[in-house]
Amino acid sequence: MKYPSVFLLAAIIGINLGGTGLLRAAEIEKVPAHWEPCGWGGGGFYYATVFHPTRDGTIYLAGDVGGVYKSTDHGRNWRMINKGLPAYGVFSLAVDRNQPETVYAATDDGLCKSTDGGENWQVLPQTRLKQLRITGEKNKSIRSVAVDPSDSNTIYAASPAGKVFKSTDGGQAWKVAYAKDGAGADSNRIRVQFGKVDAQYFGGVWIPLKFPAGLAPEAAVGLSVNFKGDKSTPKDFFITLGTGDGLSYRSKNLRDLFADDRARDVILRGADFILDPEYAKKNPEKAAAASATPEWAKVNRLDMSCSGPLPEQAAVASLGSISYAVIKTADGITGTVEAPVRVMGHDFAKNKDLRSYGNIRIGEPAQGSIYSVAVTAKDPSLVIASTDDSGLVLSKDKGATWTALATPRKASSACFDPADPNVIYATFWDDGIWKSTDQGKTWKKLSEKLPPTVSYREVTVSPSNSLDVYAIGQNGWNGSFYLSNDGGATWKSSTNVIADYAGDPTLPAAGADTPLSIPTNVAINPLNPKQLYLSVNWRSCFSEDGGLTWHERMKGADISCITDIRFSGKKTYATVMDEGTLMSEDHGKNWKQLWPLKYSAELSGHNWRVAVNNIGGTDRIIATASPWDKFPNRVVVSEDAGKTYQVITDGLPDYISTANTMWGRGYARALAVDPSNPKIVYLGLDGDPADGNNGGGVFKSEDGGHHWKQLSTQPGSRRMYYGLAIDPTNTQRIYWGGFGDKGGVYRSEDGGGSWQSVFTNDLYVFNVMTTADGTVYVSGKNLWRSVDKGKTWSQISRFDNNCSIVGLEVHPSDPKTIWISSTVWSGDAEGGIYKTTDGGVTWKEITGDTQFIRPQILRFNPATNELWAGYVGLFKLKQ
Description:
Elements: E1 36-37, E2 46-51, E3 59-63, E4 67-71, E5 79-80, E6 90-95, E7 103-107, E8 110-114, E9 122-123, E10 145-147, E11 155-158, E12 163-167, E13 175-179, E14 190-194, E15 203-208, E16 220-228, E17 236-243, E18 248-251, E19 264-269, E20 273-275, H1 277-282, H2 284-289, E21 299-307, E22 315-330, E23 333-337, E24 341-342, E25 355-358, E26 360-362, E27 370-375, E28 383-387, E29 392-395, E30 403-404, E31 413-417, E32 420-427, E33 433-436, E34 444-445, E35 455-461, E36 469-475, E37 478-484, E38 492-494, E39 496-498, E40 513-515, E41 519-524, E42 532-536, E43 541-543, E44 551-552, E45 561-568, E46 571-577, E47 580-584, E48 592-595, E49 605-615, E50 618-627, E51 634-638, E52 646-648, E53 670-673, E54 681-685, E55 697-701, E56 709-710, E57 724-726, E58 734-738, E59 744-748, E60 756-759, E61 767-770, E62 776-779, E63 783-786, E64 794-795, E65 804-810, E66 818-823, E67 831-836, E68 844-845, E69 857-861, E70 866-871, E71 873-878
């Protein structure tokens, strides 16, 4: 349920401030810094696990946002090991039994290799997402990497794009070993699929055109489109032409073109087009003066769009060339079309000027993911892969050739019996667990007596006893583990785990015995095969008895996405995506959850901001929350340090904003309490008015958060991240950081009654902060400061990189000491933590050994002189 990758921002924040004298973050002096982990474990989604082949008790674990974790004591304690990973979503792990310190991690941006037990990682060449896509991806990778047990240099890697790659040099070079037959593709044509790509109900493709030099304008009488249909019947199909002088012409409905599956030249003349009605409606004066039909010499763009019930039934066109049609005349007789005057060139499929939008796919359809690949030690020439659309495919010659086996089409995993490679077990999602004893020629279903509602994800066999078989599956959010001691003839199930509320303090009211939730991998300790470890959602767990009982072991496997940190005396408070609000009374050694104490549809979800005021010796807490289950935003208030709490909705929107938001829906990511009157509280919620609702923006409470009112006047941009601050020197003065075309910083001098734009140097503002003397700091691509209430601004960081500054903190008694953290929203795991002690004249990098280098929250605790950093994971550093 987390969204830390924030993919929706990637295309938006790529602005460049320019200027001179900018430094790259890599050029700043790095100083040693040892960050102490101070978070907890569990509470998120773990996708992969594997045991070390020779070090008893060493286990590797991976999750969707926290990278890789390592335990050396059978899972009792964990730590992050992420140095060198390009991305923190890791969905498959593998170890080399011949070189046991060699580990492979399939991240969502490339395959990584470590030769020192995961302490350092390197991305293998050509494996990145935009290269060969040898990646691990959520719900597309299960056991996607396998090392030949007889040869450490030979590696097989399954791709979410539907291929198995093979390397024979330890991952330095790769070749395709298996790909589904793509018969029918033509390198001289391009396939355009309308619909059934995503949930959108519209889409099109546009192509730039250029009138051929030397061709007289009057010689062209239309366009020639080489078109091949798929015998479908879309509701509507139009070609729209754009001209250099801004006019737009729409064709008649050409839906019947799809009925013919022969490639042929379709001639479109002027009579086939009219002035686009929508264009004419919006531009009545230009339409009145325009030609009724296209002037071909002015046409510079062609759009193809399709509409109708497409996500359920796609329509596919195959295009050859697009040309200007020239009619030959001889003896006054209009004749045939001459050889086409090519616009796009014959190698149409490789043209990079093609663009698409909506539910359109250009090019051949993507193959279904290959979830898993396995090779057996008994006969390393045997390799088996589990595909999403072709069932199991088997190679008997180390991947040179492959045979599709007679199995269900959607295969999730397969494994060989370690003692007998003729015996193969496989899982097929909803089709259950199957077994072959003749190397895949015939199959028997083993799960006939197991629940039909379970979707089976993985099966594996004990290395010491071929009769011990283990399988995992899920039913919705619930999970099941299945154990067979007779080769799959009969099964026992285990669906519960004994929770460890010291290592994972979340949802303590659920009780000691909690349901297993969505297991993703089952790993067997090769040195003690009765010891198993499950990677799961929320509470990964360990078994000492072959899976009969399970105990959560998560301490230190920190996957929590921290959204705020606050201090009050000896207490530390943290808000967290998915997990709610937690508190520590010993500076992060131990934590307890304040809310929610068990699953609650109206509260469980993301907590964003927390404010703490000590009143009469008791902490008063306010936090903002966004439930998962389609409930609108709300506020949680506790008057007694979290012992009890109230969930507040009065005056907050009873709808969910979606227009002009950062992450697809409006989240209450900003909160500010009046430092002179804790009853006055402001809340920031992103989203514009739309569909009859009032959107988000700034909300105000005058009774400590129990009742709220949306301000009647709002800043120019309601799209925002963390940007909300009150000036302690005049609490009627409020600053709001906006994002997008109308972004920047807005200031109110009357408690939100009116707003004025005061900062436009960066329209993409992530954070705003004010200090005790009224100084204002604003962060986006760089850090800016104003000492005159926003009248003038100075740039005090000069980074020239792809990062955005999100974390921001100023020392409360030394205003020249400032900390910032930078992050990227996609691509390489760039980022870092920086410090200045001279007000921004010089900076030093203090990222040090922190294992997540994209923190979004920085908070300084003056009582302990510690800087805390949080986002995925929680760390602190003495200052």
